[in-house]
Design a protein that fits this description.
205 residues, 10 strands, elongated, four-stranded antiparallel β-sheet
Length: 205
């Protein structure tokens, strides 16, 4: 007579212990997948913020370089066209083609930081004649989250004196160089100083 083998009966499926072990392993797998998913989403969000920030900085850099290079000397020697301080620069410039302006592209332009910590560009049409009703200034926010800006202006040397940077400028001609430094509210952000040579002088038309 053949004796049946001793041991657990497999016809009834998994035992309770095997089911519990399987559930524990499955829980570890799900936890690992969830952690990986959270890491991936966080990395994606960081990358998206970095791309948006770098894109805004690049657009601001190109805009300001174009404007500073396009400074126009004053037509009237008694009326300064460029007035700059440490935290604000006002000048006359030809706005880029495609800018939201009237047919008069020559504009009185101001760059500075407003009370909401935004780097702002304001402009009005530059009119040679006096008008009774002042033009309405248009405004564009170039960068948010800015603590402040610092301008510096390079003047030419003369009579044995070398050229030098100064923190104020007022004249009919642009300085030889304009330097702009931005301080962000987020001190982890840094942007190299913008240095531009205006292209026009009063005797160059």
């Amino acid at each position: 007579m053949k004796v049946p083998p001793q041991g657990p009966n497999r016809d009834g499926g998994f035992t309770l212990m095997e089911t519990l072990v399987a559930l524990v392993v499955l829980g570890f797998v799900v936890a690992g997948l969830a952690q990986g998913l959270r890491f991936g989403v966080a990395a994606w969000n960081r990358q998206a913020r970095s791309i948006d920030r770098d894109g805004a900085l690049d657009a601001t850099d190109r805009t300001l370089r174009t404007l500073f290079a396009a400074m126009v000397p004053a037509g009237d020697p008694q009326s300064p066209a460029i007035v700059g301080s440490r935290d604000r620069l006002a000048f006359v410039a030809d706005l880029p083609v495609g800018a939201p302006v009237t047919p008069i592209r020559l504009s009185d332009t101001v760059v500075g930081v407003d009370g909401a910590h935004r780097l702002v560009l304001r402009w009005t049409p530059h009119l040679h004649a006096r008008v009774l009703t002042p033009a309405i200034a248009q405004e564009a926010v170039l960068l948010p989250g800015v603590d402040g800006v610092t301008f510096a202006y390079y003047r030419a040397g003369g009579q044995g004196h070398p050229g030098a940077w100064t923190d104020r400028w007022q004249g009919v001609d642009p300085p030889l160089l304009v330097r702009m430094h931005i301080e962000f509210r987020n001190h982890a952000l840094h942007w190299p100083d913008l240095i531009v040579a205006p292209e026009r002088r009063q005797d160059v038309e």
